[in-house]
Amino acid sequence: MSLVWTALAVTVLIVATFAVAIRRARFDTIDSVWGLGFAVIAVVSCVMSAGSPGWRVLVTGLTVVWGLRLSVHIATRNHGAREDRRYARMRRHPGRIFVRVYLAQGVLMWVISLPVQVAQLATPSLGLVIVGIAVWLLGFVFEAIGDLQLLRFRRTSGSGVLDTGLWRYTRHPNYFGDACVWWGLYLLACHSWLAALTIVAPLVITALLAKGSGKPVLEQDLLQRRPAYADYILRTSGFFPLPSRRK
């Protein structure tokens, strides 16, 4: 039953966000709501589920902390900046943006959050709990530090390529961290074989980040704007952190 309530909550959030975007005349508003959407789903699922209260609060807390941090980061990054060119190109077709971007992201939020929703129902084995929280923590730290390093780099350097800190070991520490967060939350959902089927969620988010709308799209844009990025690709891992291949 909670799955229905979370779907309704996502729908309301997406419609409200689109209305705000129309009023602001900035369709990249959805980017700032991406993390918030998962937090909303987690809270609604927590309230509507019947599992152990302490366990539900833990799973919800991990999701909310991750989601709110991401939303605040993206909102801060976008404040005062130009709207993403992908949204600007679709500006004349708001209906298309609503369906292809806003509704599509709403569906993705709901699907990717399935482990969080299922995890509310029961507690897995202690071993999975420990490993799940450890993987979540690794991902959260990687994503948060990676985002902070990139934000500082953009504020202090108008050009060039960030290849220090975590960015020395992977071209996308924030994406790698994001994927780890969801693999960690998935492990917290594995209290039964049926719950384990929610593996579709971390698989989807990892594929999107590494092969879909994340890494490939961003790198294509960076290669056009920053020639030095080609050399950075040759010596730095694309996703998983590995030692830099220094020349």
Automatic annotation (TrEMBL):
Cellular component annotations (GO), alphabetically ordered: membrane
Transmembrane segments: 6-22, 34-51, 57-76, 97-119, 125-145, 181-210
Keyword Transmembrane helix: yes
Pfam families cross-referenced by the UniProt entry: DUF1295
InterPro entries linked to this entry: UstE-like (IPR010721)
Keywords: Membrane, Transmembrane, Transmembrane helix
UniProt superkingdom: Bacteria
PANTHER family, alphabetized: 3-OXO-5-ALPHA-STEROID 4-DEHYDROGENASE, STEROID 5-ALPHA REDUCTASE C-TERMINAL DOMAIN-CONTAINING PROTEIN
The protein, known as: DUF1295 domain-containing protein
Source species: Amycolatopsis alkalitolerans
